[in-house]
Design a protein that fits this description.
Elements (H helix, E strand, L loop, with lengths): L6 E4 L3 E4 L3 E2 L16 H13 L4 E3 L8 H10 L5 E6 L1 E5 L2 E4 L3 H15 L4 E6 L8 H13 L3 E7 L3 H8 L6 E3 L10 H10 L2 E2 L18 H11 L12 H7 L7
Parallel strand pairs: 3-4, 4-5, 5-8, 8-9, 9-10, 10-11
Antiparallel strand pairs: 1-2, 6-7
Length: about 260
C-alpha cells in the first residue's frame, strides 16, 4: 500500500503540512464582519495550532474585512509558518460582497496585507474571485508584478474554472487553487486531478460542508478531512474552528488515513 504524504510543496518549494487552518471564522458574527469578539481567545487558538504542527494558515482581505489578517499577523508574527491570504474581494457591510480584481486594488490590498500580517513578504497571495469587469490576465499580471518586486512569494487563485486557470497560467506560474470541495460536494473533482498533474496545490474550502456565513460542520469532521487527505496528494486542507478542542480533534484526522 502506497504511503500517503503528510506534506506538500506549494510552488514546488514551500513544504507545508497538509492539515492547515482557515481563519475565516476568527471574525465578527454574523456574516464574518468586524473583529473577532474573543480576540485573546483567537490569538491563543492560532498559537496552539502552530504548537501542534500546523504550519499553513489561510486568510483573506474580505474576512472582516482585514480582521482575520490582523489576528493572524498578531498571533503568528514571530512564528516560522506559511501564511496565505486573498485579495480582489471586499466586504463593506455584512452580506455585501464587492469584487474588484483591478491592478491598483490588488496592489493596494497587498501593501495593506503586509502590514496586517506583519510580514515582509506574503507566502501565498490568492485572487479571491475573478472580477467579471477585469480579465483574469490583468489581475494575475498585477500579482506577478508584486511577486517580481518581492512583496509576494507565490500566486494562487480561488473560485476558478479550468479554463480560467489555463488563462492565468499563460501569464504567470500558479501555485494553488482554492475552490469549494468536500466529500458531499464534488463538482471540482476534475480540477483536483488537473492541478495534481501540474503540481499545483488544491486547497478545498468548505471541507466540512459548512456554509460560509454560518458556523457548524455538516459532515463528520475527522472522516471528512481524512477523505480529502486520501483523495489526492496535492490537497492541503484548511478547516476553520473557534474551539481549541475542535482544532485538536481535527488534527487527529490523520489517524483515519
Amino acid at each position: 500500500m502506497t504511503e500517503i504524504a503528510k506534506t506538500f510543496r506549494i510552488g514546488g518549494e514551500i513544504e507545508v503540512n497538509r492539515l492547515g487552518y482557515g481563519a475565516m471564522r476568527l471574525t465578527g458574527q454574523p456574516g464574518n464582519f468586524g473583529p473577532y469578539e474573543d480576540w485573546q481567545g483567537g490569538l491563543a487558538l492560532l498559537r496552539r495550532a502552530a504548537e501542534l504542527g500546523v504550519n499553513v494558515f489561510d486568510s483573506a482581505w474580505a474576512y472582516g474585512p482585514e480582521a482575520a489578517d490582523r489576528i493572524v499577523g498578531e498571533a503568528l508574527e514571530d512564528r516560522d509558518v506559511v501564511i496565505a491570504t486573498k485579495g480582489g474581494v471586499d466586504k463593506p457591510a455584512p452580506g455585501t460582497i464587492v469584487t474588484d480584481g483591478s491592478r491598483d486594488t490588488l496592489l493596494r490590498q497587498i501593501d495593506k496585507a503586509l502590514v496586517n500580517l506583519r510580514r515582509d513578504r506574503i507566502d501565498l497571495f490568492q485572487l479571491h474571485r475573478v472580477d467579471p469587469e477585469t480579465p483574469i490576465e490583468v489581475s494575475v499580471a498585477a500579482l506577478a508584478e508584486a511577486k517580481a518586486e518581492g512583496r509576494i512569494r507565490h500566486i494562487g487563485l480561488s473560485n476558478v474554472t479550468r479554463a480560467q486557470l489555463d488563462r492565468a497560467l499563460a501569464v504567470a506560474p500558479i501555485a494553488s487553487v482554492q475552490n469549494r470541495f468536500n466529500m458531499a460536494e464534488t463538482d471540482a473533482e476534475a480540477l483536483v486531478d488537473y492541478t495534481a498533474k501540474k503540481g499545483i496545490a488544491f486547497i478545498p474550502y468548505g471541507p466540512l460542508g459548512a456554509s460560509p456565513m454560518q458556523r457548524g460542520a455538516k459532515l463528520a469532521p475527522r472522516e471528512a478531512l481524512a477523505w480529502l487527505l486520501k483523495r489526492s496528494p496535492n490537497i492541503v486542507v484548511i478547516p476553520g474552528t473557534t474551539s481549541i478542542a475542535h482544532l485538536e480533534e481535527n488534527l487527529t484526522a490523520w489517524d483515519l488515513v
